[in-house]
Amino acid sequence: MSERKLPKLPRLPELPKPPRVSALLTETLKDWPAERISFGALVDATQGRGFGALVVLISLPCLIPIPVGFSGPLFGGMLCLMAVQMILGFEHPWLPGWMRRISMTRSSVERFVRRLDPWLNRLERLCHPTWPLALTRNGQRVIGAFLFLTGLALSLPIPLTNVPIALVMIGYGVGLMERDGRLLVAMAVTTLVICVSFGVLGDQMVATVRGWLH
After folding, report:
1. What is the SS3 assignment for 42?
2. Cα(25)–Cα(89) distance, rounded to whole angstroms?
3. Mean pLDDT, residues 122-150
4. Cα separation, 117 vs 119, whole angstroms
5. In the prediction, which pLDDT does 1 show?
6. What H or E segment, with its residue span, contains residue 37?
7. 1-52 per-position pLDDT tens digit
8. 177-213 pLDDT, tens per residue?
């Protein structure tokens, strides 16, 4: 008696992948008429990609090794605001008007996006949906708590720490956009390492850098 073959189920069509954040920002910057561009315009350029895109966007001005003015507390506070919204269960990020009006030179943003794009591309290709527990509503609240710690670390006046913290922020942002729970958990562990390091070595790091500068 011959075995009856089961009919093959049709494959579900693959949904087109949304445009990359760097591509959206590049397109907006190319057509921007003024020398300075507001943070709100950059947020709007991400076309509602959620908290992940905004975290990546907040990291861009932080890729300067030495804090300039109030950049650390300003963007660290902005990250803390995003984190609180995740903890409270917001589905979409919200920025107050004064944050949206913060402006940067278009050339600086273009330079940051151009340098960051190859690394974002590699990271996005390595990511895929994993560990769905980290992506549930409660899981995102936990990730929001770690993002809050990251924002506090960025706000501290410790020289030469902006870049490593910004790279961690990029990891969080890509993990949220690509729904990669494994990457999010790795970034949470990295945040703990950074916080412990700052607590143990913070004063020594500040004294060492001040000695270099003098």
Report:
1. helix
2. 27
3. 86
4. 5
5. 46
6. strand 36-38
7. 445 555 554 443 444 566 777 778 888 888 888 888 888 888 888 767 788 8
8. 888 888 999 999 999 998 888 777 656 655 555 565 5
Domain segments of the chain as ranges = 21-213
Tokens coding 90: 């917001």
Strand partners of residue 105: 36
**DSSP characters for 94-115?**
---HHHHT-EEEHHHHHHHHHH
pLDDT of 14 reads 47
Q: For residue 24, what are the contacts with CB-CB under 8 A and spacing of at least 6?
A: 45, 46, 47, 49
Report whether 160 contacts 212 (CB < 8 A). Answer: no
**DSSP result, 53-104:** HHHHHHHGGG-SSS--TTHHHHHHHHHHHHHHHHHTT-SS----HHHHT-EE
